[in-house]
Input
Amino acid sequence: KGENFAVTRRHREELGRKVAVLNPFSLVEDGKDQFNPLDYIRPHELARDVALVADGLVKPEQGDGAHFSEMARQLVAAAIEVIVTQEEPNRRNLIAVADLLLSANLDGTLEAWAENTDLVGHRPAQTAATTPMTSAATNSVIASRRALAASPCTSAPSSASNARSVSTRSSRSP
Output
């Protein structure tokens, strides 16, 4: 695949096109190109775009696990919405989403969201209020957390403390 990329890159660059490679493990070359899916979330299509990104991050399950993977998808979507609507532009990325979901105080954050819809918006508050953290749900959330933490599709590094502060910041309009 590296040879195919090299040939294709040369040809595309000769045509005057910019070529980017998403190469998170530096198998082809040193990874320098980045993609942040949160940059493509439009304020006027917030719910739709957030749902699309969350759908791509949480593996759907069939049968008994379907309910729990859906709960995990809703939780990831809520975290994405909070990050997109409340963080500074340079912190709106999947690393900040992972930091929020991986925080030691996730239960407290969810409680704060559920108690105050003005804090983070209606959808995240509703998700927090309806997300019982049973062991199966916790396992689905942990799997989603691992996928987010391992995701190569992020743009800027961040600190976990900034993401946790989202749980107490008042809402800003997008």
Notes: The mean pLDDT is 77. The radius of gyration is 18 Å. The first helix runs from residue 2 to 14. The chain is about 55% helix and 0% strand.
